[in-house]
Amino acid sequence: MANIQYMEEFAFYQQLKFYYDSNRGKIRSRYNDLTKKFLAYNDKAENPKAFLRKPQFEALEMYVFIKEFMDNPQVYEMFDDWRNHRNKFSDASYYSINKSGQIGLFDEGIETVTDTLFKQMKQYKESYPNYIYALTMGLGKTILMATCIFYEFLLANKYPKDKRFCHNALVFAPDKTVLQSLREIITFDKSLVVPPEYARVLDANIHFHFLEETGKSLHTIDDSDFNIIISNTQKIIVKKKRKEPKASDILFGEESLLSSVYGEAMIATDDVWDESSLMDNQRFKKLCRLPQLGVYVDEAHHLFGADLEKQIRAKTSSKTSLRHTINMLAEKTSIVACYNYTGTPYVNKQLLPEVVYAYGLKESIRNGYLKDADPIAFENVKDTEFLKIAVSKFWEKYGGNTYEGLKPKLAIYASRVEEAVNEVKPALEKILVDLGIPTNSILLNVGNSKYTKHEDIRNFNNLDVCGSEGNEKQFIILVDKGKEGWNCRSLFGVAMFRNPDSKIFVLQATMRCLRQITDENHTATIFLSQENYDTLEAELNKNFNMDIKDIKNDKKSLKSIRKVRVLPPPRTITLKKIRHEYKIKENRYYEPIDFKLSEVDYSKYESIMYEKNSLASAASTKVTNIDYIRDKVQYSLFSLVGEIARYLNASCVLIERIIKESVDGEEVVLDRVNNYNEIVNDIIIPNIFHALYNIDIELHTADKEIVLLKEPKGVGYYEFLAEDKLVVTNQDKTFTPEQLEKSFHADTYCFDSVPEKECFMQYIVNDRVKEIYFTGMFTSNQGDLSIQYYDPESGRIRLYYPDFLAKLDNDLYQLIEVKGDNKIDDIVVKAKATAAQEMAVASGIEYKMYAGSDIMNSHILDYLDNTRKVVKYSAEIYQENLPIAADESTPYGTKK
């Protein structure tokens, strides 16, 4: 029974993410330099202006991790290595994580589960790697797909012989609606996700092919690179013969005279001899002549699971299915991998084994990437009554508002065209007249040219275009429209009374209103009949493993949006700006270099094979060195000298002399270099560089006035999401006027943790503290108080924002950082502390780092020898005792 429970909570993609997060520094240190630059450009922690949202960037990180660190394996191979702690996972911890985020010991109790999943994965494997990236609707799967393709092409251009990278991309859409949305790949500004200097390289080399029309040929050059073909499955599918061959088929068949003269490529060997099948076959054959093909399937979940199970999972799918077409391509050309982008990792509550990253609906709502939603069900009401209540509530809640200049929209779904035209529209017009709303705000889009004209389609496409006629349409009557590929961010409500033929349509239609608009968190409203409400709950449970109550953002009970305003006057401090100047001075080569190649640990360069005769056997795993399979560059002295001289821009004669005169000797150097190519860059070049050059470091400092908090641009406040118990404002009656004067350069402080708040409380009540400001919540362009530091994990310069700035009564300033006990010894935290300490010493101030437990369990300012005892109130006690606090004449934190 325990095994079954664990299986429901087990997700391999979470184990991958846990492993990656635990070893992020080590993993990223092994990437190519170009990859590091690409990731840094898209990482908001390193580039505050990065375009990708957090879920998109995390998915990109996993994409690169599987590609460059794991070497593009099948998912079942990764899973088998992980569960057996071998190969790349040989040093993994014996902890795993469940779906609720709880970490537990990887014990013997889950072996049955992992065996079952391993068998499933292996049973459904294809001849090529197959990965699923599950990001819920509205998170930007198309942009993520484009970013992954751009990354592939950049790396393929840099390393053309590396078989892991795609040289061409085939993008599949399930239908015409989604196909049109994929045009964004073509029009998307690459410089948003690709460093500008590399974006220009892509623009010069990429060839787009958009197969929109049925009779359109694919015009790619055989064996060419950097083609992106965008199509739906019907444009590529290969059609088999369905009738006996005619005389013409025999005459022109592959065994005919004409075949031997013109070649197989000119003959439609597998198809019925007609124009449409010939065109399909032409596209397929052109694709077969493109090397290193990556296949990208958009909206792979098509119909939220039904088609995914049929097309990606089922082995008995029809021969014209998407999966069969991809398999046929794999037989004819080299497919690097198939990347499936879907809205959910579930099919009937079962996690799909090939999922390598997922960001679900519940997470997206909680973290503000989608609108919140308020589902309302109605029972025992008539159609017209339902419509009147829905429209009235919608107008009352959203009617007079605009969002980014867009008017809020309500989608009203009818089950049939006749119902929409003859019942819904007349009833809606009467309701709008009663409410004083113009009836020309109605838009009818029912897929019938008799009722929906070209102008209506144009307005439907312009619903999110400011100043357009489409933006004026606020009540959209639909029949089976807008399921996928309809991205209307100004949609704030959905009304569905009649039961549609498809249950999944209820889920698809209601989710249309969740797309985010503006930087604020908004709540959409979903109006449903009780039956449709029950259907929605069932479909959420089946496809997202969540209940309908979960669609309501439960963060509201924990967190709320706070509008934080800057309080005058501007608080400033003068600190030393530190600049390191590195000067290279040439040295004269005068003595042999000792590379110490005999002392090098070569095990980190070795290729190892782990072999076990039987899974059921208790026999130990055999470890074998298989360096012989590696593709090594064999250097001669001539070529090695040329490589090093080119890298250092040094004389070839001098480099040759250095190698020949080295303590290790020419033969040993060449032997080690040819066995382990990596030591050229790791050992040989660095040692020669330090022998030929000397680096002098000069420290320069300059006074710089720092503004702690700047006025926001364009609006009067900043917005933060915070738990109510971690918020302190300047209106708090428990503070004395003297205490308020010490602090609050903003009217509201939103702390991240209880120890942070406790630290603030202990400082503000202490008589020896003249000023205390919480600065950790303000980053990026909000304030100037930041410290540059070298991040040892990413190898890049980044910015660090201390938590507090305090001034004591002796005019000594303190920079203060609060850290969880488990983070104190983290290498990145230490790097931040080192940089802050250097700046603090140069500026004549003090840098202090407090562990969370020290703050909560002691009086951290006792060392100041207060004249009166400081009474510690933890943040929780402070909240609990607030109603019975001492009278206003008694300062918080002191006893009478």
Automatic annotation (TrEMBL):
Keyword ATP-binding among UniProt keywords: yes
Pfam families in the record: Tn7_TnsA-like_N
Transmembrane feature ranges: 131-154
Name the record gives this protein: DEAD/DEAH box helicase family protein
Keywords annotated in UniProt: ATP-binding, Helicase, Hydrolase, Membrane, Nucleotide-binding, Transmembrane, Transmembrane helix
GO molecular function ontology, one term from the record: helicase activity
Annotated Gene3D superfamilies: P-loop containing nucleotide triphosphate hydrolases
Residue ranges occupied by any TnsA endonuclease N-terminal domain in the UniProt entry: 782-850
Organism: Veillonella rogosae
